[in-house]
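Supplementary Methods. Inverse-folding protocol.

Structures were first reduced to a discrete structure-token string of length 302. This string, shown here, constituted the complete conditioning input.
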């Protein structure tokens, strides 16, 4: 009987070595092609969330601050120009009057209507109530915070302060402040009709979550008692239907941003070139979305 050499037998029985034992370069290539650890994905995802959140917060602050102020100022100039147009009848959205309150340095142009889009440009007149200067209780709404903050100091008024209103076709009417009240948003007693010449100015108290309003009543001539408030009367501005144009703008800009991003990535364009095109579209869509949120949130007036 013959036996195989020990070297051959050991060679057959020796287990194959690791990749590192065979070829260190191949081992390094295998390790470099392995998927990154899960912690890396989580870290990048967290960074992306933080960046997106930061951008959204900054945009919201800009929307409530500089953007809203510029929006108000541009609308006010447009309303002032509209006063020069001769109209016998004022429709919703058109300029109705000028409002001056010297004690708190208010000098605003008032529009007909009190929907959120109209109040972004300054005070608005509640449709269905008498025009300022006519007999009855004329109701004006305006923001205390954001969008120019025309009524931010309404709470500083005192009994006896003057309010001057001039309508498009009428002469100036001087009102004297009779009361300044801080009431819940569902208290509509001060908004009730009257038989005197009265103007009632309504604004929120400036809090994002507050449900209270500041209401100033001013009378021209001898005051009369307020009548009982009719059912369905609300101290909140009319929200009105959602503007279809704003919804379409939001959807269109987001879709365009998505299509542009995919196209640039397929063309292997640089990150800077991609952001130059995609970021403005995304921000425009986010701005349109914020306008919709501003209209839907409760209370709409603050």
């Amino acid at each position: 009987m013959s036996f195989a050499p020990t070297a051959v037998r050991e060679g057959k029985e020796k287990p194959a070595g690791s990749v590192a034992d065979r070829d260190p370069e191949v081992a390094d290539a295998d390790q470099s092609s392995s998927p990154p650890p899960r912690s890396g994905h989580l870290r990048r995802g967290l960074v992306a969330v933080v960046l997106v959140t930061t951008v959204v917060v900054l945009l919201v602050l800009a929307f409530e601050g500089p953007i809203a102020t510029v929006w108000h100022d541009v609308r006010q100039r447009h309303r002032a120009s509209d006063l020069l147009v001769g109209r016998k009848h004022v429709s919703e959205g058109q300029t109705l009057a000028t409002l001056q309150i010297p004690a708190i340095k208010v000098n605003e142009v008032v529009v007909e209507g009190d929907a959120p889009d109209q109040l972004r440009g300054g005070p608005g007149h509640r449709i269905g109530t008498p025009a300022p200067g006519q007999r009855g209780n004329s109701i004006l709404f305006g923001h205390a915070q954001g969008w120019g903050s025309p009524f931010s100091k309404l709470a500083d008024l005192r009994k006896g302060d003057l309010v001057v209103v001039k309508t498009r076709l009428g002469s100036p009417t001087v009102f004297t402040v009779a009361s300044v009240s801080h009431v819940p948003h569902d208290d509509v007693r001060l908004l009730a009709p009257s038989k005197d010449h009265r103007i009632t100015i309504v604004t929120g108290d400036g809090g994002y979550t507050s449900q209270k309003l500041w209401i100033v009543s001013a009378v021209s001539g001898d005051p009369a008692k307020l009548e009982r408030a009719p059912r369905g009367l609300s101290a909140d501005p009319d929200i009105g239907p959602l503007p279809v144009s704003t919804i379409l703008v939001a959807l269109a800009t987001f879709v365009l941003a998505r299509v542009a991003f995919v196209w640039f990535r397929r063309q292997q364009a640089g990150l800077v070139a991609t952001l130059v095109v995609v970021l403005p579209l995304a921000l425009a869509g986010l701005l349109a979305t914020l306008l919709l949120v501003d209209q839907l949130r409760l209370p709409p007036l603050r």
